[in-house]
């Protein structure tokens, strides 16, 4: 069989040690580093043009990322030109530091430094591969040979940096493929590089520990990072950085646990573009922190702008369920979720901590609104449709009306095999619960006495009916008038009416639940005032009761057929 797990071996584990990360909690944002213009760019079918890089750069700066890997200037002309544009056109804000990547090869290092002439500050990021596979199969060298490459590269970096003393240099070293490297060798090779660079607490170097390929779980990465932090010499002269990839879908989790384990700096990309399954998504990790009450120190108030720039520059569309910012992540279709959201939102007060079921953050925080929160399809229940009617039309359905309407909404959605808008839901309600024929209200007059009296004029086809009745309100007076006229007793089981807006011009809506000859009937009507709406709702109920078969029942049979 081709599908054979025996082909694979687990990744190297760290030796037993006293790990502390499982007992820790995050309480601050890391140093964020954008890799969009390098790792993200090198993973594209068509790498970005200089113009696209410029656009992306502005977005990265706008979000507030303070360290930005801008490219591999010794590898390609557009990358070189872009770095020159940043420096010559003075595009780098005072508090932002650019970084560039280079291999341990002299001609590439020389060109890299040339590209940075005139910069105020820059990070030169040097790397070579260290894992067993890379050593044995790619470089065909032992540990010493691989260490020599790193030491030689570090020496060239130091030497070339000395030629440009006007630039404030920071050095970064990556034992590339760290995730698949034996931990003692990772530490040894990093210490060999430190011996060359001689970092101090005031002039630290960055040691970047990537899951170049994510080969194990995030807990394993956390162990690697904490073991490294506990054993690397001169820890206070080093900034420990991580750079996680998403091969197992755990890039964000790995970075998050690595922060617990002692890392201080995280390299990633906005929305996670990068080699293979991508780099760690900075937006997701930042929002993870935010939702735990930690300031991510990034401006994520307008993710739609980030999404637009990323899509335009990379040509890669975002999944609608992308964590935190996907188009559908604040939308609930399923009935019980909608019900819980609607109820929680009703309880939520503006000045208290956010406590809304199924919504881990307030969508308003990132420029989303509740428009999209609840959508109705065949998986939805009464809560969702009630939410939409209230939100879009100001209609407050009484609970019994919700129960009566919900099956029709569901049938309609099943019949259409699609989502229903609030307009459609309103239509379904009026279609099944409002019937203004054959009896229609022409006019009425109320008079006050010991009891309320009503004189009402109705049309029944071409015929005009004039009725009179008394009761303790307009509705009971009307049912009295109807009983006197038809001999049919209409009992009002429940009713509810309200205005549909704040001003005096607003229409009113009325719901009635009637018992007519033992039949329970719900009806609705809208009119210019509450009395007319209530009388029309009553007439609707009487019309529905007189219909054979009732339209509501007929509609169910139709859609089922
Ligand atoms: C995990 C990562 O993302 S690492 C970054 C990877 N990014 C990129 O590679 C994008 C930009 N790179 C490039 O455009 C090219 O690789 C260049 C221009 C830098 C170099 O191109 P080339 O000189 O043709 O070499 P190529 O990339 O094929 O590298 C292979 C050679 O470099 C050596 N090499 C590879 N990486 C390194 C390194 N980090 N340090 C020293 N030598 C290295 C290899 O051993 C090989 O040597 P050989 O020719 O003696 O067999
Ligand atoms: C060069 C390093 C940081 C890298 O991109 C990786 O290991 O994935």
TrEMBL record:
<keyword id="KW-0432">Leucine biosynthesis</keyword>
<dbReference type="InterPro" id="IPR005668">
    <property type="entry name" value="IPM_Synthase"/>
</dbReference>
<feature type="binding site">
    <location>
        <position position="279"/>
    </location>
    <ligand>
        <name>Mg(2+)</name>
    </ligand>
</feature>
<dbReference type="InterPro" id="IPR013785">
    <property type="entry name" value="Aldolase_TIM"/>
</dbReference>
<keyword id="KW-0460">Magnesium</keyword>
<comment type="function">
    <text>Catalyzes the condensation of the acetyl group of acetyl-CoA with 3-methyl-2-oxobutanoate (2-ketoisovalerate) to form 3-carboxy-3-hydroxy-4-methylpentanoate (2-isopropylmalate).</text>
</comment>
<protein>
    <recommendedName>
        <fullName>2-isopropylmalate synthase</fullName>
        <ecNumber>2.3.3.13</ecNumber>
    </recommendedName>
</protein>
<feature type="binding site">
    <location>
        <position position="39"/>
    </location>
    <ligand>
        <name>Mg(2+)</name>
    </ligand>
</feature>
<dbReference type="InterPro" id="IPR036230">
    <property type="entry name" value="LeuA_allosteric_dom_sf"/>
</dbReference>
<keyword id="KW-0028">Amino-acid biosynthesis</keyword>
<comment type="pathway">
    <text>Amino-acid biosynthesis; L-leucine biosynthesis; L-leucine from 3-methyl-2-oxobutanoate: step 1/4.</text>
</comment>
<feature type="domain" description="Pyruvate carboxyltransferase">
    <location>
        <begin position="30"/>
        <end position="304"/>
    </location>
</feature>
<dbReference type="InterPro" id="IPR000891">
    <property type="entry name" value="PYR_CT"/>
</dbReference>
<keyword id="KW-0808">Transferase</keyword>
<dbReference type="Pfam" id="PF22615">
    <property type="entry name" value="IPMS_D2"/>
</dbReference>
<keyword id="KW-0100">Branched-chain amino acid biosynthesis</keyword>
<comment type="subunit">
    <text>Homodimer.</text>
</comment>
<dbReference type="InterPro" id="IPR002034">
    <property type="entry name" value="AIPM/Hcit_synth_CS"/>
</dbReference>
<dbReference type="InterPro" id="IPR013709">
    <property type="entry name" value="2-isopropylmalate_synth_dimer"/>
</dbReference>
<dbReference type="Pfam" id="PF08502">
    <property type="entry name" value="LeuA_dimer"/>
</dbReference>
<feature type="region of interest" description="Regulatory domain">
    <location>
        <begin position="436"/>
        <end position="561"/>
    </location>
</feature>
<dbReference type="InterPro" id="IPR054692">
    <property type="entry name" value="LeuA-like_post-cat"/>
</dbReference>
<comment type="similarity">
    <text>Belongs to the alpha-IPM synthase/homocitrate synthase family. LeuA type 2 subfamily.</text>
</comment>
<feature type="binding site">
    <location>
        <position position="245"/>
    </location>
    <ligand>
        <name>Mg(2+)</name>
    </ligand>
</feature>
<dbReference type="InterPro" id="IPR039371">
    <property type="entry name" value="LeuA_N_DRE-TIM"/>
</dbReference>
<keyword id="KW-0963">Cytoplasm</keyword>
<feature type="binding site">
    <location>
        <position position="243"/>
    </location>
    <ligand>
        <name>Mg(2+)</name>
    </ligand>
</feature>
<keyword id="KW-0479">Metal-binding</keyword>
<dbReference type="Pfam" id="PF00682">
    <property type="entry name" value="HMGL-like"/>
</dbReference>
